[in-house]
Fold:
Amino acid sequence: MFVFFVRSRRAFFLFILAATLVLYLLSKWTPRRSNYKNILYDACIQARLEDFASDAANMNAIFNHEPIHYGELASLPFTGNGYLGISLSAQSHLQLISDTNAPFISTGYSPIIQISSNIWEGSSATILHMNHGLVRRVQCFKISETRSAYVTHLLYAHRRRPSLIIQEISIVNPSEQTLDLDIRLPKQILNNDFKQLEKEDYEIDSSNEKFTITTNQISLRKHNSILFVIITSKISFNSHVKPDSQDKHVILTVSKFSPPLHDDNLRNATYLKQWQNTLQKQAKDELTEVLGIKPKNLLKEHTDTWSSIWESGFSISHSLAPSVMNGDAINRTIYYVLSATRSPLYNSKLDETKRLEYNQSLFQIDQCYESHSTLVGDRLWRAPGDDLAVSQLSILWHSTLSKKGCFTLMKSGVNGMLQSMLLSIGGIRFRNHHLEMNLDPKELHRDMFFRLIHFGKEYYINISITVGQDNRAVIDVSINNDNTQTYACDAGCLDSYTKLSTKPVRFPVKMTNPSTAILYITEDLEYMKQLKETLHVKEVEIAPPHAHDILALHRHGHKLGGLPVIFWIALAFLIVIFHLFLLKIVLNEMGFFKHTTIIHPRPRIL
Structure:
């Protein structure tokens, strides 16, 4: 009995050992299933861009392949929050925005991580995600004919935390080979105007992350200088990414800078040290607060703020006419200007007195905007090629709007700046107790929509202009609250006024002599009755329909109507051939062509 038990136990252990060995060998021989979806290299970039296709279709995002493809709108991948700004490019450096009316101040420092490969074939594209205030770059690397790895960069200057810039990098290698990459870490360019005062490693007790903190001085004009502190993450990148794996990195950069300080004061060591300590403490406190928040929550906080800013906006129907500006170019310019404008109303640390002051200026719209539509100003819509050009574009817009009556409105920051730009695009101006839209009826060839224009402290106006099937433009107006007493009338105000509601009210576009605004809106009924008596127009008529060839040019890219050009060429060719054939028949009947019958002699039989 004992011998049988021993033999049974030995057989049992041998069986377990054999089963373990078989399972181990099977796990080795069975092909490994990748945790990450593999995409062919040729389709890799397009697959990454498809996630943002709907935003691009709605003119809220712009794609640029590298090198740029034919038909793409070349756009600088810039992000900013009115305090800091930077582009996702190798040539860009961190920009300090000390004043909306002054050029950016380049720090010579770039926190951007650059990734490339000398081994694998690569391709890339950038995404300017305007409605979320984000910049992305996607890179794909060809590992084999059937497998590719990809890198996604995300960069943004945080909208609610003006001293914070965040870069997120994700590297995915679904292949069965190690991905070898070349990593270029942040760098600093020194020049005669730049002086590094201190540099040290910095580590927060509550975090295992390591940082580098530098204190610098930049010389400005008029014997002034700016002190600035930069704290950025110390990243130890692994340039060899294992098969079927993913690496993720979050690079934080916090920067604080002083106002312009006179060089004579900075020669005082005590004064200089006080400013250094103040800026370093502010930057460290900001970093400590940020480290207590998850990256996904920081991103949501940022995108929610941009979404709130973009609640007001403008859209225009797409035109195929040559050299005509479309919605993506308009939104891009607005985005760049907003990125260079501060947003104090979204700053949680702003005291209530200041917040009330900014809120009041947001609704002091009177006399803005006192000129023709800015859509006709080519310089205002030029595409910037670098950070300096963004600065110049922003200064031009601020100067233009300030001199056209929008100075007080723009004091509220990014919200007032957006409202001012929308008013200027529509030729909309506030005069005393009413709003009026001054657009030329002859130029209304395309559909336009003005979304949530501030009207008083509680209400928003929506205005749409639509070109109908009869080639005439009409205006639809609505307000976001049915409880308001708001009235509107069309050009000349000769027809009876109409009370506005959330349901759009339609007005025809009219022409008057002398010319007046095409739309008037007011909250004061008595004022509107008086306004009618003060316009003094001689003639009022509904604007004539637009010429068909002009509308066809916008809608189809040519003046030949909705059918493609090749159709008309083919039709003309067929008509010419038919008439030539008909002419030949007529001439033949008239005897112009004489046919002779060839008579073959009969062979002689011998």
The CA atoms of residues 264 and 362 lie 39 Å apart.
